[in-house]
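Revision sheet: structure tokens.
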Amino acid sequence: MPLGDRGFWHGFGLFETVRVVGGRLPFLERHVERLRRSALLLGLSADGAGERWAYLAREAVRRGGVEDGTLRLALTAGEGGAFSRPAGRPTVVALAVPGGGYAEEAAERGWRAVVARVRRDSTSLLAAVKSLSYLPSVLARLEAGAAGADEALVLNERGELAEGAAANLFFVRGGCLCTPDLACGVLPGVTRSVVLEEARGWLPVEEGRYGLADLMTAEEAFFTSALAGVMPLLAVGGQPVGEGRPGPVTREMRRRYLRRAGITGRGGAGTGIPAQGGGGTGVPAQGGAGAGVSGRGGAGAGG
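Predicted:
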């Protein structure tokens, strides 16, 4: 990446995180499509680039020999003036490393959250994209870790539930699966979309506007993300959600998600990638050696 790249200096860019399972990239096409749509929102060139970005992602996994780990795909505006419109093809980087997911034991133990001081601006364009300007989420997760929690619960500027620092939120109330509407400042998560597909036809589903009280009176709750999958949420601010243990809907949804992702029945590392030890913060482990590929976006991207 050039030293003058605007992704480095101004956070002008996007990224995707994809779990690697048995050398495969579950739901890669959905991640690439979200990246393409987000690029267009930011005025970055994305014509015909989806297939090339997917190729770079798979090539990074292949070169690194990564069987179970994490793939990060980043897209930046490239070099240019601070306030100039993006010109030319964006810079694309794909990096695959071992580790970075959560052990199956973490799902049995569940997560605990705190309400972050950071707020999500539901009116911001950045709420709808996975931007390299990720500092608010980082600060929220650091706040959670300092409080001995696994994740931060982020509210929007109206005090409504939005999502976790790095995960979408679901809860069950009156037998209905509820999740904050995208208009609340929610990232359209890939795992979120899979969960909604699995739920429809099985459970009543509602996307709406909710307050913290709605969550705290729910029967059960869980977070979703590419690395965590379906992760039970057991308590917020030290107060239990439901009975304070993984509920039946959460367990069934996790089973369905693992099946869709091709993780069920793999055993060993395939059912969960070891998380970083100590502290109980639930932060993914740091990967060891890996491999990355990069190039200019679009059909002519190098690899």
